[in-house]
Amino acid sequence: MNNHRYCVIMCGGVGSRFWPYSRQDKPKQFLDFLGTGRSLLQMSVDRIEGIVQPQNIYMLTNEQYAPIIREQFPDMRPEQILLEPCRRNTAPCIAWAAYHIHALDPEAQIMVAPSDHLVLKADRFRDSVLKAFEFIERTDAILTLGIKPHRPETGYGYIQVGDHVGGNFSAVKTFTEKPNAELAQVFLQSGEFYWNSGMFFWSAQCIIESIRSFAPDIAQKLDPGMGIYGTPGEKAFIEQNFPSCPSISIDFAVMEKAPNVYVECVDIGWSDLGTWGSLYEISPKNVDGNVTQRCKALMVNSRGNIVAVEGDKVVVASGLNDFIIADADDVLLIVPREEEQKIKLYVNEVKSKFGEQYL
Amino acid sequence: MNNHRYCVIMCGGVGSRFWPYSRQDKPKQFLDFLGTGRSLLQMSVDRIEGIVQPQNIYMLTNEQYAPIIREQFPDMRPEQILLEPCRRNTAPCIAWAAYHIHALDPEAQIMVAPSDHLVLKADRFRDSVLKAFEFIERTDAILTLGIKPHRPETGYGYIQVGDHVGGNFSAVKTFTEKPNAELAQVFLQSGEFYWNSGMFFWSAQCIIESIRSFAPDIAQKLDPGMGIYGTPGEKAFIEQNFPSCPSISIDFAVMEKAPNVYVECVDIGWSDLGTWGSLYEISPKNVDGNVTQRCKALMVNSRGNIVAVEGDKVVVASGLNDFIIADADDVLLIVPREEEQKIKLYVNEVKSKFGEQYL
């Protein structure tokens, strides 16, 4: 195993689109979402076993979730958990992780991964990750994994591939965030566009330089920490400087601007599990098209529903078609699947009507 | 207060039509169904306070529910709880109660009442009960309370009134059990028919003699206990003889056959609370016709639902019209209101599919 390989797993999200299953105090990445006995986060770590040394894996999260992470990873050293003092989207925290790791190992090659996605083809994933590390080890590149789309999804970012540079690797021509339905259909049919998986590879040196070039307002705040990162003074430095970084995504801050951005087009059985719809899509269905894998359900005259109910509960439903039925703790949600994007609105309404405790 | 007045409250039913709210180990009569702080059974006892002396109130139930009754009525003497060894419908247990009370007080006048009905006009109810006792104290009669129908309900028994005998009292002409919709409509329009409330009044002597005349197979089993009732030998006698009584309702065994049956036509704000539909009907509704009195609910684009959810749970529902949404312990039920009569079937299916523990 190459000792300079690192993995930064982003696990500070609140996952509100999966409410009420995903709750503010225990978002979906910490849940055994598929009933496998491992949380999505644990599965994210399991997937890179043998590729990145355990001590080279970093968790990027916030204070609130540190206890859950310690519980789910009892062997992890406290230094491996990087705690953002506040939420500033992905660019500032990815930058900080790069500065931190660079201080410990200037030759570090970093994989950045989300913690709440699903990868069904683990072997192909491992192969793709190995090839990605090899690619950035020989090329001064910013690399992202691209997923071949199979539906005109409007909730994802799309990558248009440019010149082929060998293997499954190509230069990136354009990035497009969340296209409308018409454009998504064009993207799908063109064959030139791939979904942006949110998995990135780069050397610590490369991403720091890219941030200096394309997100100078972040570099300005974090550069003064050189010499402090990796020392006991780091925590205080971050607490003082991180909050004044702009809140901006790494895609917008760097990926869309840098010239040396490449994509590895992969087929890894990926799902972002971002919505009930994506969970419905990847789940096994019974003859009536109902997904009830996690619970005991008696579905009468009901089709196309996804039923997610905690514990040993029995659900009896009749006359429901294409609904999300989710019951978790003190919240019961029954809404049409086509309204999944409205769940965030409902969460806000519940908050203002009944209080924070239901979030 | 007349010391010869007694009340027998039948509280051994399982209430399966209100599943999952009503459960086999705690049927609806023991639940604080309306969130008033008192169970339906406790309210049934509260209603006759001052009319029947506390020590003259008897609970007719089975072994399983004795602990709940003791808990809800800590001052009640154990002798006031009559435990059927098995279920034999209403006639045998009403007969036993009559024999038992007759042994203690041959002049006893008995009111028989269900434990799971609702009476909204308590003052009128008390007045009706007092008049009923006075009626049977001067007439050797079998008396039932009749409720003026306001919808063509097919789930109830109907009483056709005959000759008026003073006050609100009339002789009974016919009994009709659960008519079809067409007939129920005719009954409603005729003005001659009343719902059978299941509340009866008679002297102990009168009902025992009626049973001897019209249900001799019950009298044959229970008559030999004369001299044993009210003594320590009663329990063993009942355990031996009660199970061989036929399973038959008091309506069918006696009311429909006896010549001296009368009805007091009353307006007491009665609901049998037998179904979700009847609970929906009597409950306050919001502007969208949703009944959500027991829980915090965000109902979006949803009308005519009844939402019954235990505890401090929040329900978010969208696009649901005329549904029953009931969540209790380990069961979640979401079915159209018009299917309320099918709930018993669903209970059976859940039993065979997932086990007895959900009943």
Mean pLDDT of chain A: 93
- What is the total tally of β strands of chain A? 16
Overall structural class of chain A, as computed from helix and strand content, comes to alpha/beta
Largest sheet descriptor of chain A: 5 strands, mixed, barrel
Strand content of chain A: 25-35%
Question: Which H/E pattern describes the elements of chain A?
Answer: EHEHEHEEHEEEHEHHHHEEHEEEEEH
**Number of alpha- plus pi-helical segments of chain A:** 11
Strand order in the largest sheet of chain A: 6-9-7-8-10
Q: Tell me the distance between the termini of chain A.
A: 42 Å
Largest interface: A-B, 33 and 33 residues
- Name the shape of chain A in a single word: globular
Oligomer: homodimer
Low-confidence stretches of chain A: none
- What share of residues of chain A is helical? 25-40%
Tell me the radius of gyration of chain A. 21 Å
